[in-house]
Amino acid sequence: MSALYRLASLIRNLFHRSRVEREMDAELSSFVQMLADENTRAGMSPEAARRAARVEVQGVEQVKEEVRGVLAGAPLESVVRDVRFGVRMLLKHPVLSLSVILTFGLGIGLTTTVFGLFEGVFLAGLPFEGAERIMALGSFDPAHDGRFVNYVNVRDFLDLREQQTVFEGLAAYAASRVNITEGDGEPERYAAGLFSPGAFEQLNVRPMLGRTFRRGEDMPGADPVMVLGYDLWRERFGGSRDVLGRELRVHGTIRTIVGVMPEGFAFPRRERLWLPLTTDPSGEWRADGPRYRVIGRLREGTSSDEARAQVATLAARLERPRAGSDRAPAISTQPFMEAEMAGTIPPAFLAMLGAAFGVLLIACANVTNLLLAHSAARSREVTIRTALGASRGRVARQLVIEVLILAGVGTPLGLGLAASGLSWVTAALAAGEGENVPFWMTFGLDWLVLLFAAGVTLLAGVASSLVPAMRAANADVTGVLKDGGRGLSSLRMGSFSSALVVAEVAVSCALLVVSGLVIQSVVRLNTVNWSFATKDIFTAAVALPRLDYPDSAARAAFHERLLPRLAAIPGVEAVTLAEQLPALGVGRTVLEVQGRSYARDSDYPRSWFAAVGPGYFETFQARVLQGREFAAGDRKGTLPVALVNESFARRHFPGGDPLGRHIRLGRRDTTVQWLTVVGVVPDMCMQGVYDPTGDPAGFYVPIAQSGSSGFVNLVLRTRGEPMALTPDVRAAVKSLDPNLPISDVRSMESSLRRATWYYRDMGGIFVVFGFAALFLASVGLYGVMSFAVTRRTHEMGVRMALGADGSQLVWLVLRKGVVLLAIGLAIGLAIAALAAGTLVVALFGVQPRDPVVFGAVVASLALVGLAATLVPAHRVTRVNPVVALGAE
Amino acid sequence: MAPDTAGPPQGTLDLLILKSLSLGEMHGLGIAKRVEQLSRGAFLVRAGSLFPALYRMEESGWLASQWGESANNRRAKYYRLTALGRRQLEEETEEWGRVTRAIALVLGTT
Questions:
Q1: Is the pTM of the predicted complex or chain greater than 0.80?
Q2: Size of interface A-B (CB pairs under 8 A)
Q3: Which residue among A169, A315, A859, B21 is least crowded, i.e. fewest CB within 10 A of its CB?
């Protein structure tokens, strides 16, 4: 009850402050008046009566202050007063305030951006209700450094599904891409999720229309059904509700639509539709059957430890994978997001996190320094306030509040920066990775990111004002006042300020080296000589469904018929097929060179290999160095042939003629036939742009002889705009098979750009960090040096009056700056040398200790630093001794 | 005013104000005078402690106030007890009784 009254009073006191004050005034003056009246009645003169009354009250102002002290919200009130005073002080120093605001904005913005990325990737998780209870099954694989690998053999999955009691259920899933035709519409290729029945239930999502998969629909021979994703439903069926029961041709099978999923559901990555995952329990797959991802939702009240224990126990009792093998599969379970993200925080990400906090550190150091400089100048105000009775705590609080105000004003700036940064990353990811970016990975200013920004603001504000506040609170009152206002003792540039400048220079030096390396890597990337034509090349993918093209003969026949039709398209100069495109990743295999003997399995060499069609090198305008390239005649039934690249030839046939030599895939017990080398071709970046091996050696086999999987890229070289070929290529494919779509339609140039987005965009981020650091460090240096000069105006005046000339004075100032700069650079280079090592994964063809970059950074930082010192130093020469001596 | 008068003991000002107001509404000076009078001049309430107490008690809902005319035609703010204030007075009186009895017992003066 009483609390309610207090609350009402609090609101009144805070919002009707002036009315409360007026009432108090009136009441007290009436009190004094009545006291005086009494005194008059007792016989005093009116004047004496009033004076006596005032004396008795002992100061109206003090009484008012006492009353204010008990009013509800009194502590809040004093903070509000501090804030008001703070705002007034800040408005009086607009340049200082603005630079602090900008500095905070930059620091907060960059850290929030990086946190937003981190949150989107690692913290946000699946957007389903109770998603934290979704577990993934897998095993800790010794072949992967004991990391958790979330795949389970299909037979193990089926057994565990029957036996387990800790999950609501277990479900397996996989991702695939399928061709879809419907009526007369254009065939299209879509990412499809293959779900065992129950997967939707484990994820806790319900269809928007119809149903999901029933038990039994995963058995071979069951009625073929499918579930549409929201977007596909809108695009292909205009969002029509009577879509249920309609039929679509999906990869050669007619399937009935039984459900539509709600908007935003695209599990596991960016799937557009879902098909039942067919699992045949009678299949003899225990040893090397397919492996799938398996998920289960923990039962209510079951802990993940209990689940792990049961899964391990059950797995130990599972049938052995091979007769005689004594090792049961060591299956375990992990929370879904942990399993998905296991050990994948890339070093570049950590470097980014480090860089962002580096910038924030510089920002805070800057603000601290600006404040130290400023608070020294303000020491008179502070000491006067102290002398007038403001407590030391109050003085310190005042300063912290002022900085927090500035940080608060800087925050929206930082949030704007973060918002645009995150949307830029989203766009870059979508352009670079497309369907590989999981649907739940979204970046934006959600509440967690905002909370982080608020936290950083508070932290940065308090951290950067702490030392100045402590200094201000401990200011020597009598010392400053006695000093005739010059406050020499508190104006000395402390070693703390110097240390901050050194730290700033060091951190920005490290950041600049990192961004310099990345810039160089981007430049390399843009000027790389690919050794094959990238201009005027059109590529598109065609995938032949097994139902329509059951064997490699059928697939080869299709390819053979397709090539002439593509070649007949006007403007096309050359055409070929390739299972893998150059520089975009090929397979790696163990091989055997005939005539060599290998003692152990591990002695067999490994090499890149790709399956390509006839005319591949001609299409990419790569000169065949020796022998010939594949021709239409290299098909099933003719001599099995291979082409080796230069590096391969050098490594495996040193000094000899590779032509006519034999190689084969696999080791000695393989049944694969020997391939005859018929040509030597140039290295065409088979290792791809993210090369973990540093090994360019590789060989090629003809698609027609390699038992094609059915997936090929069509490669056409043309005159003019390659993308203009799209309708003609689509039509050529359709003329052979009306159900066959083309997908991944791109120019070779854009494919390469896509493949290298990571380098480019990581590069972009580091460039931003580097320049932010450079900017902040130079502002910081300038601020400190400039203040040092101003503060020494008096001293300079004296020196000048005593006959020192301009250049001597400039050197005096410069010396300090140069020393700080040099120490900072030395430390910064040491940090950079350490940090650069971890960055090697984000660099394309650049050594992490690249001397050019290190040199350039040192030079530019020294230059900027010197400029920041020289400008204020130069001001010294213009000091008029007469003015200077009377200054301050 | 006798020089040996002092403010009321710690924590009893509220009780004294409530008690004075139980007889009817009164302005600030009136309350101070009434306390002085009821205590036969033993307690003197100064403005510096009276007004903070009045504002605090009003904010707690024990007192209500309104402006009126004094006997000498001065505008003054008059305070009166609210229902909540009356209950508070009863509670504090009872509490005071218990405390004084207990202290008397301890001191062995009864």
A1: no
A2: 76
A3: A859
